[in-house]
Amino acid sequence: MTGHGFRADQIDTSKPHSARMYDYFLGGKTHYSVDARAAEQVEAVWPDVIPWTRANRSFMHRATRWLATEAGIRQFLDIGTGIPTEPNLHQVAQQAAPASRVVYADNDPIVLAHAQALMLSSREGRTAYLHADVTAPETILAADELDATLDLDQPVALSLNALMHFIGDDRKPYEIVERLLAPLAPGSYLVLSHGAIDPRPGLSDAVTELYRASGIHVQGRTLEEVTAFFDGLELVQPGVVMPHRWRPGSERERTEAESTDLWIYAGVGRKG
Predict the structure, then answer these.
(1) Cα 117 to Cα 104: distance, rounded to the nearest angstrom
(2) Which H/E stretch holds residue 45?
(3) Between vectors from CA 73 to CA 151 and to CA 60, what angle results, nearest 5°?
(4) d(CA 242, CA 73)
(5) DSSP string across 176-235
(6) 3-class SS of residue 56
(7) Which residues pair with 129 in a beta bridge?
(8) Distance between CA atoms of 21 and 18, rounded to whole angstroms?
(9) Among 228, 255, 233, 229, CA closest to 244
(10) Which residues in the chain belong to E strands, given as ranges?
(11) Which residues lie below 8 Å from residue 163, measured CB to CB, with a gap of 6+?
């Protein structure tokens, strides 16, 4: 593993962290009281946050399954992995295609502490974890763990789920995605979901302020701004939509997709 000087006991429990708050919203147990308090403050202002989070998670599952079955992808690079919550991406991919290879990357020491759960690969496949930051894409692409696990001469699915809304414009989010996609082989895919701007008056501003007061920068983007991450790629139908409207599986999912708005956008694009 690439630790870059981090040890699991260096986890900062004095302030909330977005990955641990996400774990709270998913009903997990890998968070601290500081995260629960911050998450409860967000939920009080924005009751949709739990269905929002679960819809995003379900989108990741469906997109991964589609890539492994319909698109024939056998390699996955998941950045901003977060705290392991079953089923993890590699479990979905390897259930569909046991030989799938997955590299996870995250910059939170708590994910490093739980990385063993991400390493339990199928016999035929392989998983690896590296501690790295999406804002330094070259450190991910040059990591030994990635080189040992993925062949960049073959198609790779790059997953950036609920990550880029934590990257402000000043950190050049579009350039980061371009740099991550640049070395990937033709036939690779980008899977991306991104928090949107809720049209209800004042709601997005209130949520943004709560996160920023906790030291977490967050920036919702419009449909056009999220779609711009896919510039130069061929969008898979139905394009960039709310995640529960991206190829819903069951009748219940289809009904929910028609009746509920959740202000997050998601899509899958293919590199030509």
Answers:
(1) 11
(2) helix 33-45
(3) 115
(4) 23
(5) HHHHHHTTSPTT-EEEEEEEB---STTHHHHHHHHHHHTT-----B-HHHHHGGGTTSEE
(6) helix
(7) 104
(8) 5
(9) 255
(10) 75-79, 101-106, 126-131, 157-161, 189-195, 234-235, 264-270
(11) 79, 80, 134
Percentage of residues in the chain having pLDDT higher than 70: 96
Token couple for 146: 């990635």
How far lies 10's CA from each of 74, 131, 217, in Å? 34, 14, 21
Q: What is the pLDDT of residue 250?
A: 73
Q: Over the stretch 62-79, which tens digit does the pLDDT of each residue have?
A: 999 999 999 999 999 999
Q: How far is CA 24 from the centre of its chain?
A: 16
At 138 the three-state DSSP class reads helix
pLDDT digits (tens, 9 = 90+) for 23-36: 999 998 888 999 99
Domains and CATH numbers, the chain: 58-199+218-270 (3.40.50.150)
What tens digit of pLDDT does each residue of 159-189 get?
999 999 999 999 999 999 999 999 999 999 9
Which residue in this structure is represented by tokens 């030989």? 99
SS3 state of residue 128? strand
Q: Residue 175 belongs to what H/E stretch?
A: helix 173-181
pTM: 0.91
